[in-house]
Amino acid sequence: MPQNPSHPSPATALSLAEKASLTSGAGDFVTQESAGAAAPAVTMSDGPHGLRLPKESGDGGQLDLHSAAPATCFPPAVALGSSWNPELAEQVAGAIAAEATAHGVGVVLGPGINIKRSPLCGRNFEYFSEDPLVSSELGGAMVRGLQDAGVGAALKHYAANNQETDRMRVSADVDERPLREIYLRAFERVVRRDRPWSVMASYNGVNGVPVTENARLLTGILRGEWDFDGIVMSDWGAVRDRVAALRAGLDLQMPGTGGRTNLEVADAVESGALDEAVLDLAVERLVRFARRTKDPVRSPGSVDVDGHHRLAGTAAEQCVVLLKNESALLPLDPAAGSVAVIGELARTPRFQGSGSSQVTPTRLDIPLDSLRELATGADVRFAAGYTLPGAAAETAEAEALLSDEAVRLAAESETVVLFLGLPPQDESEGFDRDHIDLPAAQTELLERVRAVNPRVVVVLSNGGVVRTAPWQERVPALVEGWLLGQAGGGALARVLFGAVNPSGKLAETVPLRLEDSPSHPSFPGEEGRSRYGEGIFVGYRGYDARRCEVAFPFGHGLSYTTFDYAGLRVDEADGVFRVGLTVTNTGSRAGREIVQIYSGGPADSRLLRPVRELRGFVSVFLEAGESRDVVVEVARHDLAYFSEREDGWRVEGGTYRFEAGASSRDIRGCVEVTVGGDPSTIRLTGRNTLAEWLGHPVGGPLLSECFTRARAGTSQEGRGALADPVMRRFLADVPLDVICEFPQSPVPPASLGELAEAVEARMAEDQERQGA
Questions:
Q1: What percent of the chain has pLDDT over 70?
Q2: Number of H helices, E strands in the chain
Q3: 235 counts as catalytic
Q4: Closest by Cα among 6, 84, 74 to 662
Q5: Lower Cβ count inside 10 Å, N or C end of the chain?
């Protein structure tokens, strides 16, 4: 970063020891203060969906996950992603920022925007989606919500951090195109647009290089290409070589090491192993980072606890996904009938995941209590049905008695609401799942209940997707309740009784089997390396490419009303495609619809292409019978793929499809648009194949002219062999310098250099005209 002569570097006022001390924490969650550089200490807090605040009576250390002071537990990212509502995410982040300020916290360690590569990842509940666009829109909104309120965001975990198995050592071995298009894409969008104050470098390596020491990721791409101006901090305990990390672009090691690694940095500077200018640049960034944070209020009483709980409930309502609703079984009538609420999860809910993101809630809505409160006339009775791990009565005999009791209640009731889900022992930070099945005791209970009462509503509580096949075919209604935060119990009750019309959409695919997951053959890898063999075909991209049936597709979610799409159209101006259509609420009650815009093509591309990719979405709320025009803007650049050969983003010319859908497999309209391609930057040589020459916008026409002249200037039939489409295809992948050696080649070896020079000259002329 260039220096301003009128503003000397803060590092000039500090000793070498003082500068080194600024580049590591002063404790578990606080940075080092520097009076000489006028840099205050910055307190950080875990909690992408709420604050993990240390109690005054406890040490609040990084391994103390169960003694945090109360804070509002909002819906975790797994749920918030299903809202598809960036405005809601920004509002939630603003509330978290208000609590952070009140408690003296200057930086919240989140949001997490890693891609859900596999449904087995134990930390999937902290991430939004399998798609980088959804992840960037929701994650970027949270960055804005935090930072507009004066609290820094720590965008994490950069990069390709997609598993917990061997998470501190494993190398994510990923090719350049999927790295850029899938795993870095959300980070790029958020960094460029939303300017987070900090980015957290992850534990893992990428292609054999630890991220904390990866100069290409931390400096070349993050700062050089994306113009990131904040600090890079390590995940807690991720630094292996402090000096190498500083050299690569890591500014802050967390947590502090009691000064041990500070001495390593100072010694490296004094010995010449580390350029002091590198340290000075890190210090400048750290001082600017510290000065950005507002003076904390340190008055927890200023937090609107009740208001934040209501916001948590409103958010949870938009996160609930109605997966299935045969014969309009839902909503239930709160004024009549008998309802059997079955499942210990209705009485002892899971509302967040385990690990560093755990929040001590200010209060907790219990689904069972909320259902009883909303039932104005319906008879709501409860049976546990099963125990949760760790319960005192967890014996085979006790389980059998609970199951029998639940079956009797189901037989006596008009409708059953059966709560099923994963126990915390099955999913957590720190380890990956072994399967995606519900506990056997729960699925056995489901079959017994269904046998005595066909009117079964299943409500799921889970942080990662669970397999719903084959039992989903045998229940008429299925609700994905995710982990909904502290107010989720009330939100579920309002959806089930119809006070709220569900509008959530899946931000990840629910497969029929774990084995169908595109990453399954290579997850989680072996011997310290995880090969991302599925490439760009992650999530719905992979299921679609293999035409694989799924339980519920990406983007799916039903409503208590219905929506019609009409009049799809696409207009292009100034490099932006405006995709418009009319959405009509054709049902009998108001509701919210998420309109998803996908693109696909060109059909004749020589690239590996997904069938469709999400390019934008819009939320529209409509009263019954109301129609509204909506428009989604898609930048031309968003159609680009990353070319490893040309080392950059390229838009391939051709015919593209723009599709409007209610999910990735419920496409309601399609329009084709011709898109001009970017001029190639490839410098053609004899080592390029015939197909590459013919496909080049400049080289192709020039080579074709050679073919024409060769056919016109000779009577030998062999000279026209390349006009034969079969022969052209046969030779497509043969380098041109090899073809030139053939006796009947239309391009003699001596002319190859002249042809390449002609291509260079024509490309230079084209560039001059474009510049003019």
A1: 94
A2: 22, 28
A3: yes
A4: 84
A5: C
